[in-house]
Please model this.
Amino acid sequence: MKRILLILAVLSSLSATAQIRVDPNAPRRCPTVIVYEGGIADNFLLPADPTHRSLALDAFLTATALPSLPPVGYDENGECDHHFGDSFRLDSCNFCCGICSATLEITMRGCGGSIECNDSITVGVAPFNTAGGVVLWNGYVNGTGCPNDPGPVPVTPGRPDVATNAAKRPNTTPASPTIVKKIELDPRKLEELVCDRKVRYLDVYIQDDQVIDSMRLVITKP
Ligand SMILES: [Ca+2]
Ligand SMILES: [Ca+2]
Ligand SMILES: [Ca+2]
Model:
């Protein structure tokens, strides 16, 4: 009888063990936080904080800028219609054992122009949606684009997002309020870029009526 009780106890124990499941939706423990910074959080104070663009992003900005309206650095935008871009140099040792999340935070404000609503942000590898590029995230600064004209978000060289009859506009209205735009990037896709495709730079491109104070790329990992 003792032996039967023992077997029953073992079976009971096995049965209890078998019921343990891993909840795929349970939050992973990700206590490690790594922050990459672009620019300085100095409330748009001039002089401009320098950018550190990848060669690919530099070439893309040159191809995309309107004539006589070169790209700007952090804190700069005396007039509207200047594009902005900067790159984060990513260390493979921080990514290739798995990351939980990747959040891009951009502190920015509109330049006071009339077509801020069509400004978009593109994150990935320049030249983005043309040959050799990658788009990880693309969307409007304000989330919806201009009223009645959402249209596709343009990120292709040769398709600047300004209206053809308003190529250059001085700041005539007060700058828009400062916002912190938070963008959740897909951590698996970012890992793939860095670890499998050996990409070293994450490029950020912002059109073209925005003033950028600073950016942070916040990575969490186990
Ligand atoms: Ca500054
Ligand atoms: Ca615009
Ligand atoms: Ca700044």
